[in-house]
Amino acid sequence: MSISSIFAIHLNDVARMRWRDVWIFQRVYSFSLFSSSTTDKLAFNTVDNGYLKLDRVRIPRANMAMKFSTVARDGTYSRADGAKRELSYFTMLQMRFHMVHGSAKTLSKAATIAVRYSAIRLQGLSATAPHGEVRVLDYQSQQHRVLPRVAESFAIFATSHVYNAFCTQATAMVDTSPDSIDATSLAMAHAISCALKVAASELCTRGIEICRRACGGHGYLQSSGLPELGGFAAQFVTAEGENYVISQQTTRTLLKLVGAYRMGVALPPSLEIFHALDGPLPKLSATDYEALFRYRFLSLLHQFDATAAAYPSPDVAIQTNLIESHHLALCYGKYVLVHEFAAAVESLSRATKPIAVALFELFCVTQLQEDLGDFMALVQLPTSARASLHARLTHLLDAVRPHAVALVDAFDHSDVSLNSTLGRADGNVYDALMQSSLLYASDAVPGFTEYLQPLRRLHASSRL
After folding, report:
1. pTM to 2 decimals?
2. Which of 45, 68, 84, 90 has a CA between 20 and 30 Å from the CA of residue 409?
């Protein structure tokens, strides 16, 4: 087949000027090209997505990225000598850690809006002071909805800072001396990035919806900023691997590392927890937060490893037990969040530590309550823990409430970035709502008053 020279095509949606990209390929004589934009998305429409249909197009070997894998002239695929497979997904690893940070940032915006609005809005009479209205944030039910979202934001932020720093260091090593990269550490980082992406994005999307509901009818307004945040955050669940799909990567890597551990292979310090994998469960109380999440994860991993032994390969075991695989990855992600949050709190000064400890406990207690069945079944948490966890929760809500506004102010989101009538830093919520409503002073479409309204009046007075 005759092939012409390499050339570039600029794809332009000229009519709408929505997107542009450059594609380089070899043209064959029987060639067709069709491109277009996709429809609008739930949100994040500042980035356009399109599709391109190519028919009979050949990519020259000179234009292939073949640093770690090669394709011979006869079409044979092979891995480059000495290439570390883990480096091939390094950019995806970076992107997932960035998405963890994005989840923290987006959730913290929703928490900021909900806390500020709840601190301003008065609704209902006090049972102890019948002539005074109650701030919505002083209701225990409202605290239960919005304050754990503040704690979740801090937990995800603390964890993302650790692993973004790891990515920065690893990137420098890849650029200067890729041979010095430890493949086991990189594989572990891949498993963690997938697990954290799952856990953080699930907490984020759920938390934003809780904050929206906590703001009542005003939270349903586009001007509140919450619907846009919810739509924006939804991408984190899907992008770079939908959560139920990408969780398989975590399970696969964990099984491989467990196998290496059992064979006596030296593992990085982050995997020292594997030493407790086959040992007896210690007796834990409801306040042994980090240990509870660690042993919950290890128990699930031990069970899945035993299950996988009955299958021909780990891949078959994972595909046959996808529900358990996803749960394992999610629980691992939550353990990493608890572990890194605890380490971050421990490093704080004496002045800052008390409120940070309260936030850490609030995060752990709410997660324990939500997954209480897991902890009772897997780490033998006694049934009496249910009452003690509830008592601890109410105490923590009381402790965090006076600091709630200051805590969300610490996220340092400007009014411009929040783009919310409810989350204004100056508290002028209702003035902002009125001003935004004036933008829609007339609901009539052009021509309604001149043409359609007279026809409707005529029809209303007709005897037909």
Report:
1. 0.85
2. 45
